[in-house]
Specification:
It is built from 14 helices and 14 strands. The chain is of the alpha/beta class and about 475 residues long. Helix 2 (about 80-85) runs antiparallel to helix 10, helix 4 packs parallel to helix 10 (about 325-360) and helix 5 (about 135-150) packs across helix 6 (about 170-175). The chain is globular, with a radius of gyration of 25 Å.
Amino acid sequence: MAEKLIFEISREGKRSFTMPCWEDCSKIDLDEKHLRKEKIGLAEVSEPEIVRHYVNMSTLNHHVDKGFYPLGSCTMKYNPKINEYMAALDGFTQIHPYQPEETIQGVLKIYHDLADMLCKISGFSKVSLQPVAGAHGEWTGLKVIRAYHESKGNPRKKIIIPDTAHGTNPASIVMAGYDVVELKSNSKGLVDIDDLEAKFDEDTAAFMITNPNTIGLFEQNVKKIAEIVHSKGGLLYMDGANFNALLGIVRPADLGFDVMHYNLHKTFSTPHGGGGPGAGPIGVVEELEKFLPVPDVAEKDGKFHLDYDKPESIGKVHSFYGNFLVIVRAYVYMKILGSDGLHNVSENAIINANYVKKMLEDTFDLPYKQNCMHEVVFSGENLSKFGIKTLDIAKRLLDFGIHAPTIYFPLLVHEAMMIEPTETESKDTLDRFISVMKQIAEEAKNDPDILKNAPTTTPVRRLDEVLAVKNLNVRYLQK
């Protein structure tokens, strides 16, 4: 027996389907040696057993539908289920990238309108939706920067990044063919203006920063930074990973940024992926439009089409036009919220982070005490006198059904705990998290072995991580 699904597109663009059906293998034109002589003999499984299997599997892992996920700088926010429903519609899932343009006008309109919305909220004149991850967007933006400088006859060799840069930034820079120059932060955790001015020379193509940065702080001197970079013929790149702290409040292009990538999973509620599929569109100022990837979705006489007529484009950076169903999810999210709703996203993210900061600043060390934006970075250094490390705090949180925050990053904060509550968590959830963190701090003082042996309630106990790295042995363990 074999399942057969026929999908055809006529020359006129009309689609015809034959739904999945069961047929005798003898009717299928296959070589005899490929035909099964006996039935497969699959086990009979009832519906309750299947449902229980997947429910039980879901309880073995931690996910945002199950509990709080304060993963700093990664914005593990709740993904509305309507996004998934809309992305699963037949009109979206049953299309083919080679269909005639006249048969996918609705799809092209979504591309066009989402790019337009991203332009409006960021201030850039053009957006490409082709990159399929945040780091892919970084690399694409850097290739645009390279194309710009080459068009001026000066390709330049270096990109400057601060020590608060996201971890993918250095890798993207090297992959784009540049050398990395690191800039130290000042005592406030912000860009050291004097160091930037000293290091930015005629061989530097761009300054690449995250704003707000990975300590959760807004770069107050961003206008001065832009002035320095532009005065030396460079471009200013913004890593948009923390854009969910700026929506409706400030537009990056208005601050002087020339290129930016958007993380649709962090800001616009698409699935985070775990390596993909994702979406990392880039926005650019008018002078850089001509270098964007092809094709671009253009509108003419009320019709949408794929425009490849861009002779100075860096070319394609993905096989087709970007991860469409991820783009649909972001489109739904933005349409539902509207401009006021997006503004509220940032306000609530900032309020939640500062609430956590205020409630825990007397319990844990806080290296940078000014008001934060979307996330706050504590240090567990004050518990070291009890023999407790930040790793122990992270492991103990799992016993309370709370995912650990990002730890040991950024590197300029010793024993760092980067906490990002996002805008989707309620005050009740935050109050419980705060209470648990205070309880853990008390346990560290009174019974530190509780933390050192944690977690005790998870399906998998604490691993010997050093041994695991040195002697990696991936296999299925049967209880």
